Amino acid sequence: VNGAQHHILTVLVENKAGVLARVAGLFSRRGYNIFSLAVAPTDDERFSRLTIVVDVESSPLEQIVHQLDKLVNVVTISELAPAGAVQRELLLATVEADPAERSQVLELVDVFGGEVVDVGASRLTVMVAGPPDKLDDFEGLLGAHPLVELQRTGLVALPKLAKASGRAAGRSGVRHSLAG
Amino acid sequence: MKLTGAQALVKSLETAGVEVAFGLPGGAILPVYDPLLESTIRHVLVRHEQGAGHMAEGYAMVTGRPGVAIVTSGPGATNVVTPLANAYMDSTPLVVVTGQVPTRSIGTDAFQECDITGVTMGITKHNWLVKRAEDIPRVVAAAFHVATTGRPGPVLVDVPKDVSQSQTEWYWPESVADLDLPGYQPQVEPDPEAVGAAASLMRSAKRPVLYVGGGVLKARGAAPLRALAERTGFPVVTTLMARGAFPDSHPQCLGMPGMHGNYTAVTAMQQADLLVALGARFDDRVTGRVDAFAPGAKVVHVDIDPAEIHKVRHADVAIAGDCRLAIEALLKALAPDVPGKGSEATGGIEQWWDQLRRWQRHFPLHYDLGEGAAIKPQMVVETLRGLSDDDTVVVAGVGQHQMWTSQYWRFERPDTWVNSGGAGTMGFAVPAAIGAKVGRPEHTVWAVDGDGCFQMTAQELVTAAVERIPVKIAILNNAYLGMVRQWQEMFYEERYSEVYLSQDLPDYVKWAEAMGAVGLRAESPGEVAPAIEKANAVTDRPVVIDFRTDPFEKVFPMVAAGASNDEIVVHPSQLERTRSAAAAGIEEELVG
């Protein structure tokens, strides 16, 4: 995540109808800015995890965390320090690529460790996964080819694991943790 | 035991301790109204669902127990939106049950369908759409738990018609662990370290103020608050939501701060070196322009809701937890150092008290009685207070009459003041008074209302008459939307736009009588006390008094919206004093 204004919150919520609306409604009615949001069920079917990248220019992070924590369906909230978290995002892009230009696109995809996921007569759909800044670079370089459509998933992240064995293993990237 | 969902719902309400519910039936809630016939719950049939919501609020505010309203789907449900928003702002515990169209019809724009859980998401502490009858007892138990614990607030339970008609096995959750609330654990116990830090700031303060908000009343903290005030000798201000939390007759009470607070309360906060905020939320009506509010004060902030701390004003010491427990902890932490001294100031703040007393002498609350025939609204409130005992519950709507009541009613006991604070809901008083009277039948309940407010919800007096709920309503009839008129006079060059209501239309006496109430009128100052005495003698039905008051009276003091509290405007007759006080440097005397 780029910029000092962006913070990553990973929010464990109950996997119930309307929970996403409650979170989104809170952000909109209190004027908080969401930069990106990813949501999916966890290994425990009772819970889902939201990864929210918030823009704290609008409101202090602490206020956002406390207001989120008041939502009854929110179970835990952790803030991940960008340096202490592994971050991934996925990008899908469809570009115009005549057979003559195809090799340039393929080369670029290869350099970024991506893959081609669909091929048409004059178009390619490619996929790249990685940290957001890497996707930004890819997006920039891909700009040389006419873009048909581009979709990014938003960030997901987990705390980095401790490299030395010992007590803080697995939690070193959590900057701020709150019980729900 | 097999029950229908509706029977389980009613039994759940009974098991949760509900004695009274306010409501109005309709299609989707019909199944629930059938078992109510056999229930121990008293149902008060309102004339409009907004009335049910405000009655539940009035009931909750005087009893401390959650108020309950039952309404149908669609418009029935949307009519309680205003009370829910009001209760959310003022942290009043409510449980509202709404009917919903059958689950198979949800999302089809069915007759009287409305996504009420969606509508009320932002104005309830939580809400539930119950999709299976077997969930009803658990959800109702959870609803009461959430409404009444932590920071209290309104919750809503939406019950589709087929769910209340289907069968389920009766049970009742035995513990909080059975409520399926994995994300709900309000922080109640104050952090001892923070309490210690607060105590040390309190020991060294030279110009402290205890800034008491509604949270103290919610936490049942009036008694420990008094002990804390007397132990420390600190002056106390009580916000609009906290009137009655500390007796107005107490020598340490400075009264109400804020936009229409009295000069001493406002100025004491401005010049304080320490604000101890207890269950208060630095509302804009209290702070005025935030960046100019209490510039020299350190802040200790006690609140059950951690999101309130640092929200508006940075706290030097943050104590998240129950106000009562926090005050008791502060008392304990201060015990070895500050010996109880009655209401005398502790060492070091005598100079502060000298200053406060000077302000009180120079700038008491004031209005001119005048020599004309006009009734002054403040005089009505003072006369009414003089003819009422300390347990009388007084209720207000929103506007000038509300401010005059808060200013001139001498509050002595907790839970004797019911008004709409945060939301500013006109029309609150009549139904809220009815709910308060249901909750405290042994107390006299007076609503002081404006003529604008009264016309919004007066129809509930029919409910009061039919149900034998003898509330008393004093209309300060100034023929205007008075507060708006005041702003237009002061800030819009006396361009009066759409604020005139007429003193004679409607005829309040005839209207009262048509609704089964006694109607009285007072048109001159000499008629004020006799009318109140007549009203106080009526005990079997509602009474309405139409007080024809001076339309041009304004509320003072006043801090204009967006202005600093330093720019407080006192009563015109005191203006000269402000100037000479500034010249004589009263302000400076204090700092040295």
Description:
- The complex is a heterodimer of chains A (180) and B (592).
- With 180 residues, chain A is of the alpha+beta class.
- Chain A has four helices and ten strands, in the order βαββαββαββαβββ.
- The relative contact order of chain A is 0.20.
- The model of chain A is unreliable at 168-173 (pLDDT under 50).
- Chain B is 38% helix and 16% strand.
- Chain B contains 25 helices and 20 strands.
- In chain B, the strands form four sheets. Chain B has a six-stranded parallel beta sheet, sandwiched between helices. A six-stranded parallel beta sheet of chain B has the order 11-10-9-12-13-14, with helices on both faces.
- In chain B, helix 1 (5-15) packs across helix 2 (30-36), helix 3 crosses helix 18 and helix 9 crosses helix 14 (323-334).
